[in-house]
């Protein structure tokens, strides 16, 4: 059975937020102070260590959304204590709806526009978080004597080219993050291309976006963090 267009719009919206690394649920029931509410898409963001709750209403209609729907979502957001409410419509909003959303925590938008806006913001935040994790790994890595780095598989006995190398992982991450910060896409991964033994992952020859950079750096950092965690604290200088 074909999924109804309005339902597909909800699912596409939820899937978009999931693609950004956020938690998203459709047809979600939530208790407010005064009553229970049914939300089209319920989103939780944990990007900066704090939970932010967004309530998304998907209006797959042939007509523009009216002011009444903006006011209704404002009430729900207030009752639930959510951080933000978003109404999505591909056929626009009446003038009164746009005015009612101004200077509030309600956003009126379309899924098409939201994709471009949020992808840029979310991946910028995620790359900043990754940069901080790389810095933390770098500090811990170089605090270890060379003998301990070899013993716990953080670098090969013979140097570069003979197995996993945490120093090379850090250098690769720094390199990719720098290119992303300058927005110099696409860019070549250079000597890090196809070096899974050294980096722990098989990096492609070219990275084309912030999402690409995030998706390749994150597993590299996770592997390095786990390896460092296996080293006894007493081993650090």
How would you briefly describe this protein structure?
One of its GO terms (biological process) is DNA restriction-modification system. The chain has helices spanning 5-19, 67-80, 95-101, 111-142, 146-151, 166-181, 196-199, 210-229; strands spanning 23-31, 36-45, 52-58, 84-88, 106-109, 187-188, 206-207.
Distinctive features:
single chain, 237 residues, alpha/beta, Trna Endonuclease, Chain: A, domain 1, five-stranded mixed β-sheet, two-stranded antiparallel ribbon, 8 helices, 7 strands, elongated
Structure description:
- The protein has 237 residues and is of the alpha/beta class.
- The chain has 2 domains: 5-109, Trna Endonuclease, Chain: A, domain 1; 117-235, no CATH class.
- It has helices spanning 5-19, 67-80, 95-101, 111-142, 146-151, 166-181, 196-199, 210-229, and strands at residues 23-31, 36-45, 52-58, 84-88, 106-109, 187-188, 206-207.
- Strands 1-2-3-4-5 form a 5-stranded mixed sheet, with helices on both faces.
- A hairpin with a 6-residue loop joins strand 2 (36-45) and strand 3 (52-58).
- It is elongated and about 70 Å long.
- The termini are far apart.
- Residues 5-108 form the Restriction endonuclease type IV Mrr domain.
- It comes from Pseudovibrio axinellae.
């Amino acid at each position: 059975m074909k999924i109804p267009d309005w339902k597909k719009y909800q699912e596409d919206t939820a899937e978009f937020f999931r693609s950004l690394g956020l938690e998203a649920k459709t047809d979600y029931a939530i208790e407010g102070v005064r009553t229970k509410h049914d939300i089209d898409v319920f989103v939780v963001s944990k990007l900066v260590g704090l939970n932010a709750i967004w309530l998304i209403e998907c209006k797959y209609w042939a007509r523009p959304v009216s002011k009444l729907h903006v006011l209704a979502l404002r009430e729900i957001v207030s009752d639930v204590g959510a951080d933000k409410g978003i109404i999505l419509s591909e056929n626009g909003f009446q003038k009164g709806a746009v005015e009612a959303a101004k200077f509030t925590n309600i956003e009126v938008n379309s899924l098409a526009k939201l994709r471009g806006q949020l992808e840029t913001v979310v991946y910028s935040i995620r790359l900043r978080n990754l940069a901080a994790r790389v810095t933390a790994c770098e500090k811990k890595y170089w605090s270890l004597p060379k003998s301990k780095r070899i013993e716990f598989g953080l670098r090969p006995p013979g140097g570069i080219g003979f197995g996993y190398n945490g120093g090379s992982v850090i250098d690769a991450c720094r390199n990719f993050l720098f290119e992303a910060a300058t927005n110099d896409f696409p860019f070549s991964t250079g000597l890090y291309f196809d070096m899974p033994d050294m980096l722990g992952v098989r990096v492609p020859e070219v990275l084309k976006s912030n999402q690409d950079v995030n998706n390749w750096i994150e597993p590299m950092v996770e592997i390095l963090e786990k390896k460092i965690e296996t080293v006894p604290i007493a081993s650090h200088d």
